[in-house]
């Protein structure tokens, strides 16, 4: 009887613990090594907070996550928190399912201190704010850098390009028909035929795809001299001078194989570049070269909370979101994945300082943060990206001239904005 009583008490205790535990789902698109690092962070939080269980759920790539979020917003089956790009959040806000965070941030008991709020980089704050309302916290943030083959640069006596003129010169010097068969097999530069690479050059040249007016109106500015110059620069390197290789997919493979000596991509590509180059050649990264200005775009998502969960779950989700933004976790996340720390205070942690000691070029993306440019956080941005991506691909693949491409993109964007 005594044994049965002990068993009963143990079962009762477990049921009380389980009743007191708050479970929250966290949907994300972090696979591979990034996903493993995220799981380690979640496990650390769960161990430190036995009354909360964060359940990370890998949904798939960003496209799959976007579709699942939009479908779940309709069905009412949303998680507690999720990764989201700004334009996803902008689409979800009017549906009333995204939790505003001002009331959490400003709460005197569990909100941010002024020091904690000020520690978030200013551009990242801009990306999570609509009007005066904060709807997200920054999560996996990256920026664009120039990857280059250090062995080749040493062999050819070159230094990393600081301007677009330097980039063109270095690409010209590095391009070779190495086996003498009349076909170039080593290109100085590599481009992706996508919006992302075009935007790097467009913003460096002082141009924009659209501009948001003082009353929130969207003005289409793609058909501009700056855009024409940026496209011409890319086109000439690929077709006129044949010193750049272009393709739609990621370029870490051609870079690792020695087909291209330089390419521009986000710092999130670091583990893939490292893997593809290992045992073949050295590599490093440098700032995006200067044109009229330096305005490397930011990439990556934020975390949003959904208003459809219980008040208990909201408090638990907020606690986890704050945990993710702590200096130590941000330093760990950055070292493990290559993403930038979302808070300045992470740079003061022993782990980050030791990492920079061993990898001095880790400061390159950090030094670009104040110069970086952000995407407009409008609901139509995904569709804008699709139109511009098609235009860039058409121009670089000789399906449209530069003037035809810009005129087409301008007309399509105006129809999109008008809701046609």
Automatic annotation (TrEMBL):
Pfam families: SBP_bac_8
Cellular-component GO terms for this entry: cell envelope
UniProt key word Signal: yes
Principal subcellular localisation of the protein: other
InterPro entries in UniProt: Bact_solute-bd_prot1, SBP
SUPFAM superfamilies: Periplasmic binding protein-like II
Keywords, sorted A to Z: Signal, Transport
The UniProt record lists the keyword Repeat: no
Location relative to the cell: Cell envelope
Similarity section: Belongs to the bacterial solute-binding protein 1 family.
PANTHER family: ARABINOSE-BINDING PROTEIN-RELATED (PTHR43649), SN-GLYCEROL-3-PHOSPHATE-BINDING PERIPLASMIC PROTEIN UGPB (PTHR43649:SF31)
Name of the featured protein: Sugar ABC transporter substrate-binding protein
Source organism: Kosmotoga pacifica
């Amino acid at each position: 009887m005594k044994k049965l009583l002990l068993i009963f008490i143990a079962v009762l205790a477990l049921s009380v613990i389980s009743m007191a535990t708050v479970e929250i789902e966290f949907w994300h698109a972090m696979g591979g090594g990034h996903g493993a690092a995220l799981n380690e962070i979640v496990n650390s939080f769960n161990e430190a907070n036995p009354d909360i269980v964060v359940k990370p759920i890998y949904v798939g790539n960003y496209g799959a996550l976007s579709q699942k979020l939009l479908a779940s917003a309709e069905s009412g089956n949303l998680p507690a928190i999720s990764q989201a790009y700004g334009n996803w959040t902008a689409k979800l806000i009017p549906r009333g399912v995204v939790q505003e965070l001002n009331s959490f941030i400003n709460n005197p008991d569990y909100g941010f201190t002024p020091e904690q709020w000020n520690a978030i980089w200013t551009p990242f704050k801009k990306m999570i704010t609509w009007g005066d309302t904060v709807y997200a916290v920054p999560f996996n943030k990256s920026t664009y850098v120039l990857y280059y083959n250090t062995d080749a640069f040493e062999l050819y006596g070159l230094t990393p390009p600081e301007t677009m003129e330097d980039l063109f010169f270095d690409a010209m010097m590095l391009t070779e028909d190495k086996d003498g068969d009349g076909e170039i097999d080593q290109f100085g530069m590599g481009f992706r035929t996508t919006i992302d690479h075009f935007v790097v050059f467009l913003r460096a040249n002082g141009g924009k795809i659209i501009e948001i007016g003082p009353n929130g109106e969207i003005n289409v500015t793609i058909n501009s001299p700056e855009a024409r110059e940026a496209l011409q620069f890319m086109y000439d390197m690929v077709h006129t001078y044949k010193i750049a290789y272009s393709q739609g997919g990621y370029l870490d493979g051609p870079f690792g194989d020695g087909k291209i000596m330089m390419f521009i991509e986000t710092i999130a590509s670091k583990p893939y570049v490292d893997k593809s180059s290992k045992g073949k050649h050295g590599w490093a990264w440098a700032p995006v070269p200067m044109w009229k200005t330096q305005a490397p775009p930011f990439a990556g998502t934020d975390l949003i909370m959904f208003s459809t969960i219980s008040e208990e779950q909201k408090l638990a989700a907020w606690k986890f979101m704050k945990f993710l933004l702590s200096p130590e976790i941000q330093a760990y996340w950055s070292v493990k994945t290559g993403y930038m720390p979302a808070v300045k205070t992470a740079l003061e942690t022993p782990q980050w300082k030791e990492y920079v000691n061993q990898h001095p070029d880790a400061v390159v993306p950090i030094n670009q943060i104040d110069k970086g440019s952000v995407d407009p956080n409008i609901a139509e941005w995904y569709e804008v990206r699709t139109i511009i991506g098609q235009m860039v691909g058409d121009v670089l693949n000789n399906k449209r001239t530069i003037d035809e491409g810009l005129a087409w993109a301008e007309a399509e964007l105006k129809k999109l904005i008008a809701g046609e």
